[in-house]
Amino acid sequence: MSINLWKEAQQLFAGGVNSPVRALVKPYPFYTSKGEGPFLITEDGKKIVDYVLGYGPLILGHSPEKVRNKIMEQVQKGWLYGTPSRIEVELAKKIIFHIPSAQKIRFVNSGTEATMNAIRLVRGFTGREKIIKFNGNYHGAHDYGLIEAGSAVSEYGITISKGIPKDIVKTVLLCEYNDLTCVEKYLKEENVAGVIMEPVMGNYGVIPPKTDFIKGIRELTSAFGTLLIFDEVITGFRLGLSGAQGMFGVVPDVTTLGKIIGGGLPIGAIAGRREIMDSITPAGEVFNAGTFNANPLSMAAGLATIEELEHTNAYEISNEAAKVISQEVDQMMKIDHVTHRVGSMMQFFLGVKEVKNATEAKKANKSLYLNLHEQLLKEGVFIPPSQLETIFTSASHSQNVINFTIDKFRKVLREIKNDKGSS
Question: Which residue in 40, 115, 307, 344 has its CB near the most CB atoms, within 10 A?
Answer without folding.
Answer: 115
